[in-house]
């Protein structure tokens, strides 16, 4: 199996993180013995393990598990892929959409694998810039296509709820390799994703 379903949690990690969450919640001024909070440290420990499960997954294996020899050599685009990640500076969510495109070079990849590898990298502590590069490099190095393009548009809770408190700003990052470095191909892609 190139990746496992997240059904069982590591008991030791859950216990350790749970104890720490209990301390954190107390340090923040809450009573961890009141009804609503009794199981919160454990739930939070499991939630954080779920949100960082990408560390245990191998995106290269995921792509390789669904590569097929095919002569199609036009642009393949999967757009508006839902994205949820955690900013590594504040451990607060950032979320939005990703658009991924590639031009095959003898091989295509199962379409669901593109969102899958996005999740593998997104379910780690991240910055949007590195997330964009990692998805780009993974596809480029594994599939070796004629070109690959990634655009990510995201809202960052660390900017919306704290800091500058800008609720409507969206951060866009993009990266292009191979054929997409030519403005004609890149512009066609940007037009097709509505940019
Ligand atoms: Zn942040």
From TrEMBL:
Residue ranges that the Swiss-Prot or TrEMBL entry lists as coiled coil: none
Biological-process GO terms, alphabetical: one-carbon metabolic process; tetrahydrobiopterin biosynthetic process; tetrahydrofolate biosynthetic process
Transmembrane intervals: none
Family indicated by similarity: Belongs to the GTP cyclohydrolase I family.
Residue ranges constituting the GTP cyclohydrolase I domain according to the UniProt record: 19-193
Enzyme class: hydrolase
Enzyme Commission numbers on file: 3.5.4.16
The species this protein was found in: Flavivirga aquatica
Gene3D superfamilies attached to this UniProt entry: 1.10.286.10, 3.30.1130.10
InterPro entries given in the database record: GTP-CH-I_C/QueF, GTP-CH-I_N, GTP_CycHdrlase_I, GTP_CycHdrlase_I_CS, GTP_CycHdrlase_I_dom
UniProt xrefs under NCBIfam families: folE, PRK09347.1-2, PRK09347.1-3
Protein name according to UniProt: GTP cyclohydrolase 1
GO cellular component: cytoplasm
Binding site for Zn(2+): 87, 90, 158
Assembly and binders: Homopolymer.
One Pfam match: GTP_cyclohydroI
MF-aspect GO terms: GTP binding; GTP cyclohydrolase I activity; zinc ion binding
Catalytic reaction(s) noted: GTP + H2O = 7,8-dihydroneopterin 3'-triphosphate + formate + H(+)
SUPFAM superfamilies: Tetrahydrobiopterin biosynthesis enzymes-like
Pathway(s) it belongs to: Cofactor biosynthesis; 7,8-dihydroneopterin triphosphate biosynthesis; 7,8-dihydroneopterin triphosphate from GTP: step 1/1
Alphabetical keyword list: GTP-binding, Hydrolase, Metal-binding, Nucleotide-binding, One-carbon metabolism, Zinc
